[in-house]
Amino acid sequence: MVVDGLDLDVPAGEIVGLIGANGAGKTTTVECIQGLRKPDSGRLRVLGFDPVTQAGQLRPLVGSQLQSSALPDRLRVAEALDLFCTPRARDGGELLEQFGLTQRRRSVFSSLSGGERQRLFLVLALLNRPQLVILDELTQGLDPAARRDVWAAIRQLNDQGTTVLLVTHEMDEAEALCDRVAVMRAGHVIDAGAPADLVERHASTAVIRFSMPDPPAQLLDQVRRLDGVREVTRSGARITVHGHRRIVAHVCAALVRWEPVPADLAISQPGLEDALLGLLNGDQHEQPAVIFIDGELIGGRR
Fold first, then answer.
1. Which among 49, 63, 69, 238 is positioned nearest to 137, based on CA atoms?
2. 301: pLDDT confidence band, cut at 50, 70 and 90?
3. Does residue 75 or residue 293 have the better pLDDT?
């Protein structure tokens, strides 16, 4: 996959997500940022360093958890911490406790479950107090409770000033964690912004459904006149309202003024997944660009 530039200005301390379909160039991008893949052309800077020629200076400042990672089968968890720690390292025991791995300190890598391995790689990514953390498919293979624990740890890390670059296919994860997301397609960023802003631009339609056997004509007229309502349809007792997401509060307020309030009121609000599908399926104009972290160019072409 050719990565032809990323347009994203990331101030220090933000959590920024890269999202898009498989093959969009997300993993290629983070591999270039870490010096694991050499760009054919262009200029790369991460925290002021060239990832290819200055990898020794950069690596202590960056923590990463990659999509495909492995350790020697017979390496114990505690030995992995000793192997990866630097003089900047945090207390590895505290990290193991935070991610539920204390009882596995003496376990060999091959005996860990998929979720335990994922948590161990996250521990190793955070071990040396990095300025930038790169996480590729952060919670793949984790159960719901473990996912929430990992999210809490990332928020805590970010609260301490660490910049996080998150590659994910989980849109709820991006919405829960990211200050900003960039949508990639065919090596380009096709749009970027706060999750709520992307939803506003590309998936703003909400749908409200409820049943009212004999709805007053005044109520339906009132709903049709509400700002943002695009369509009101009725099929028997079933009424469906389409419109901008801001209609939800207004329609609900209108219904409360009539008795009885529908017991089957259902609201479908658009989310980041809807915005992503709208973007990937639409004819968006793609602009080659660059990516910045803390004022430093880290990817793209000049």
1. 69
2. very low
3. 75
**CA 218 – CA 153 distance, rounded (Å):** 52
Q: What is the DSSP string of 151-172?
A: HHHHHHHHHTT-EEEEE-S-HH
Give me the residue label for tokens 């912004």.
193
Distance (Å, whole) CA 122 – CA 100: 12
CATH class (in words) of the domain with range 205-269: alpha beta
Q: Is the pLDDT of residue 295 over 50?
A: no
- Out of 29-33, 46-50, 66-70, 245-249, least confident range: 66-70
Question: For 208-253, what is each residue's pLDDT tens digit?
Answer: 999 988 888 888 899 999 999 999 999 989 999 999 988 999 999 9
Say what the pLDDT of residue 15 is. 93
Backbone angles phi, psi at 49, to 5 degrees: -115, 150
Task: Name the DSSP letter for residue 67.
Answer: S
State in words which class domain 8-199+277-300 has. Answer: alpha beta
Report d(CA 65, CA 136) in Å as an integer: 6
Report residue 187 as tokens.
């090596």
Where do the H-state alpha helices sit in 92-143? Answer: 92-98, 114-126
Euclidean distance between CA atoms 149 and 136, whole angstroms: 17
User: How many percent of the chain have pLDDT more than 90?
Assistant: 39
Rounded to 5 degrees, what are φ and ψ at 97?
Answer: -65, -40
Q: Where exactly does CATH 3.30.70.100 map onto the chain?
A: 205-269
Per the CB < 8 A criterion, the answer to whether 51 and 111 are in contact is no
Assess contact for 140 and 27: CB atoms under 8 A: no
Listed in order, the ranges of the chain carrying CATH 3.40.50.300 are 8-199+277-300
